[in-house]
Amino acid sequence: MQYLSPNTVEDAVQLLASRTGECRVLAGGTDLLVRLRSGMTEPDSVLDIKRIDELRRITREDGGWRIGAAVPGAEMSENADLVSDWPGVVEAVGLIGSTQIQGRATMAGNLCNASPAADSVPALVAADAVARVAGPDGVRDVAVFDVPDGPGKTSLGRDEFITSIFLPARPARSGDAYLRFIPRTEMDIAVVGCAVSLTLDAAGTCTAARVALGAVGPKVIAVKEAADILTGSIIDAATLDRVAQACSAAANPIDDKRGTADYRKHVAGVLARRATAIAKTRAGGAA
Amino acid sequence: MSKIHVTTTINGDPTEYLCEAEDTLLDVLRDRLGMTGSKEGCGTGDCGACSITVDGRLVCACLMLGAEAEGREIGTIEGMAKGDTLHPLQQKFIEHAALQCGICTPGILVAAKSLLERNPDPTEEEARYWLAGNLCRCTGYDKIIRAVLDAAQDMREAS
Ligand SMILES: Cc1cc2nc3c(=O)[nH]c(=O)nc-3n(C[C@H](O)[C@H](O)[C@H](O)COP(=O)(O)OP(=O)(O)OC[C@H]3O[C@@H](n4cnc5c(N)ncnc54)[C@H](O)[C@@H]3O)c2cc1C
Ligand code: FES
Ligand code: FES
């Protein structure tokens, strides 16, 4: 195996395009190193993107935030302004592994690893986040929802990689939240994850909402029915019941050792109800 | 295959080594540099026995390539005591009997030191969450947490 560590996006793209064998992008390495060591993947080369300065930054852009693909989770949690704009996204990223894992793991790596249970992905989809992808023809922007293609698969070309993820500007009275269910309190894989992002008007009526579920299908699910129920409502108890029902219905889980399909559908509804209530409170709505 | 030449700093000392692209930093520390304080419990990021710092941030040495250390500042358990003088955390671990077999201890000490550098006065809950990625099969954790909180108090009073 060869270790490559370009200093610019252009060099990285060139290296990716010119490789004959399999080349794997290395961000935090918290998924890739585990796979390398177990022999699950045997690439001819790894391309470390952490030497590319612009990928290591969190920057404000058009009122929103651009998070470089080499930024570890810990740096996101330490950025108070980012946390205040997107508390749900940052809490989802913060759930990835231990303190040690947080020191390395990136949001883009979580997305590109394409695990159906990846914690940051529902929160990014609820946030309507956009990934910037660099390739031989320059850069293109792709909705985060369109990046994973199923377990372990992404829609990226083999000579493409994500350079950053953009979180849009927040209108006044907006809030987001992510909740996952795991059998213990730390260090486990989501049985179900649910993210909600919403905006209220001055009277407390919801003017925009997005709801997403993780770990209950081959890839993240955007629950449009739940978003439609929320939009135009004052998010009262009856609304929460309907959101929960919509999420249980949208969930399409499998039975496995961590939960049966029926149980997961039920939990999807429970988490949707709770995450919606948290997002509403964060948006300044009455509890 | 040609080896990679890496220049880095470990516990303040400029260090050079040759490694293979697939060597983890933990392999390099233990097998090439003879620094066997960092342990391999799992090799998959779950146990924290290999905890080190890279540019001041706590990470698992088993989940990082040796080649990635180029130009970085690495901190390991070997840099914790100053000569024969133990770090207050090390002293408290002995006083509280916060170790039995000792495999987890270097990683927990490095992780606890990193916690106290950021937060000199952690609550018990904060300490438990910070150390959640450090597994111990022997002590049941209570003594470890008590040693960390006691060391924190001493260090605050001393500063
Ligand atoms: C102990 C432990 C606990 C964990 N707990 C959780 C958890 O609770 N929740 C969770 O969701 N995950 C968890 N994970 C998985 C992992 O930490 C996350 O998925 C993490 O976000 C991966 O990011 P990374 O930067 O380390 O990715 P890497 O390992 O560097 O890369 C992951 C994959 O994505 C590709 N890739 C990385 N960056 C890019 C890019 N910019 N463009 C294109 N492809 C790219 C890589 O080639 C590789 O295939 C855990 C892992 C460990 C070891
Ligand atoms: S050996 Fe690195 S976390 Fe277990
Ligand atoms: S003392 Fe034996 S594992 Fe912790």
Topology:
The complex is a heterodimer of chains A (287) and B (159).
Chain A (H helix, E strand, L loop, with lengths): L1 E3 L4 H10 L4 E4 L5 H7 L6 E4 L9 E4 L2 E5 L4 H5 L2 H6 L1 H8 L4 H4 L4 H7 L6 H7 L3 E6 L2 E6 L4 E3 L2 E2 L6 E7 L6 E8 L10 E9 L5 E9 L6 E2 L1 H7 L6 H14 L10 H22 L5
Parallel strand pairs in A: 1-3, 2-3
Antiparallel strand pairs in A: 4-5, 5-10, 6-7, 6-10, 8-9, 11-12, 12-13, 13-14
Chain B lengths: L3 E7 L2 E7 L5 H8 L18 E4 L2 E4 L12 E3 L12 H8 L9 H14 L5 H7 L11 H17 L1
Helix pairs in contact in B: 2-5
The complex binds flavin-adenine dinucleotide and FE2/S2 (inorganic) cluster (FES) (2 copies).
The site of one FE2/S2 (inorganic) cluster (FES) has 12 residues of chain B, from loops.
Give an overview of the whole structure.
The complex is a heterodimer of chains A (287) and B (159). Chain A has two domains: 58-167, 2-Layer Sandwich (Uridine Diphospho-n-acetylenolpyruvylglucosamine Reductase, domain 3); 174-282, Enolase-like, domain 1. Chain A has 287 residues and is an alpha+beta fold. Chain A has eleven helices and 14 strands. In chain A, the strands form four sheets. Chain A has a five-stranded antiparallel sheet with strand order 4-5-10-6-7. In chain A, β13 and β14 form a beta hairpin. In chain A, 52% of the residues are buried. Chain B is α+β, with helices and mostly antiparallel strands. Chain B folds into two domains: 4-79, Beta-grasp domain (Ubiquitin-like (UB roll)), CATH 3.10.20.30; 88-158, DNA polymerase, domain 1. The structure holds flavin-adenine dinucleotide and FE2/S2 (inorganic) cluster (2 copies). The site of one FE2/S2 (inorganic) cluster (FES) has 10 residues of chain B, from loops.
